[in-house]
Each structure stands twice: as structure tokens, then as C-alpha cells.
Design brief:
single chain; 198 residues; mainly beta; 5-stranded mixed beta sheet; 5-stranded antiparallel beta sheet; 38% strand; UAH_cupin; Ureidogly_lyase; RmlC_Cupin_sf
């Protein structure tokens, strides 16, 4: 039987190997007053990384890669999962870019699940390392480049996310998918089930 994974509440510490949690810090000695003293600015909350060249100039360290630019997009996740568990059939990664998901208009009443896995020596996700994190919609997450993860799993209600990813239109460079099969240790294409109900 496919393993059942219990999501844990996400924290800066338990997500650090996969990326950063983007949230308002409890305390930040580097925060500054801005906008004539009407706001506070918290900087450098995540690492925005592009491992491809930003242009086609002669300084391109890897001419085999097509230049990529930042794509600020909105993901409208309008179909919350309604079942007590959710089957993981695939993971994806962005080999050359970080990827940030930031809920828009978060009020704390909508949740989403983040699923990650380590990369193996065969350059595929390692099924035994699957982890799941429960997040509310007042915080965002930022994946490091090359981190295997599941597409966003929204529960309870729809959530809109602003996303930032470096892209160039080359499919495998922008997003690589890995579908689990029986040979990779899954049952009927389902590698694991995420427990969604508390």
C-alpha cells in the first residue's frame, strides 16, 4: 500500500532545505520605516535565483542555455481538494530557477499543502524522502532551484497565488515533470497519499 504522509505545519527551520518561508517576521532589526513613516519594510525574505543567463551577451557562462527572464504570474487555484487524502502521482522541478508562491489577499482561512522530495543519484525524486507541509494563506513559499515538488494542493477554499519564476519558453528548462510508475515504487501511479484532514 502507498505510504500515507501527514503534513506538518511549515516553519522556517523545517523548510530550509527546500527553500524559504515568506512571511512577516516576528522581529527584524533590519526593518526600516518607509513612505513617510506610514509603513515598515522587511527586505530579503527569500532568494530569487536565476541559473541561466539573463541575456545573450558574450559573457554568457553557458551558451547551451537559452536566456531566461522573470515571469510574474498569477495561479488561480480554484478547485480545492475535497477528499480526506490526496494521491501523489507526479513531482516537478525548475532546474534553473527558484519559484515563489505568495497568496493574494490571504486572511488565514484558506490552506495549501506543499510536497517536496530529494533528488536521487539517478537524477529522479527519491520516493522515501517525500515530505508534506501545511501552510495557511498568510504566508508564501519559495523553492530553491532543482527542488522536486508537487503542484500546489489547495484545500478548504480557492486561493490565488502570485508567482515569480525565471522562464525562457524551453519546456524542459522551465519545468521538468516526473510521473511515478510501478517501477519507481508506486501503486497504480500513486506514490503516496497525503492526509488532508486533521
Amino acid at each position: 500500500m502507498s505510504p500515507i504522509i501527514q503534513p506538518v505545519p511549515i516553519t522556517n527551520e523545517n523548510f530550509a532545505r527546500w527553500g524559504q518561508v515568506v512571511r512577516l517576521p516576528d522581529a527584524d532589526p533590519n526593518a526600516v520605516q518607509v513612505n513617510q513613516g506610514t509603513a515598515q519594510k522587511f527586505s530579503h525574505l527569500a532568494e530569487f535565483i536565476n541559473l541561466r543567463p539573463a541575456s545573450t551577451d558574450s559573457a554568457n557562462p553557458n551558451p547551451a542555455l537559452t536566456p531566461a527572464t522573470a515571469n510574474i504570474a498569477i495561479f488561480k487555484c480554484y478547485k480545492p481538494v475535497q477528499t480526506p487524502t490526496f494521491g501523489i502521482k507526479l513531482l516537478e522541478r525548475h532546474s534553473y530557477s527558484s519559484q515563489m508562491f505568495m497568496p493574494m489577499g490571504g486572511d488565514g482561512n484558506g490552506s495549501f499543502i506543499v510536497v517536496t522530495a530529494e533528488n536521487g543519484p539517478d537524477d529522479k525524486p527519491v520516493l522515501s524522502t517525500l515530505q508534506a507541509f501545511r501552510c495557511n494563506n498568510t504566508l508564501g513559499i519559495n523553492y530553491k532551484p532543482n527542488v522536486w515538488h508537487h503542484p500546489m494542493i489547495v484545500i478548504e477554499k480557492p486561493v490565488q497565488f502570485m508567482t515569480i519564476t525565471h522562464e525562457n519558453g524551453v519546456a524542459l528548462e522551465d519545468c521538468e515533470e516526473y510521473w511515478f510508475t510501478k517501477e519507481s515504487g508506486s501503486e497504480g501511479g500513486v506514490a503516496a497519499h497525503i492526509q488532508l484532514t486533521l
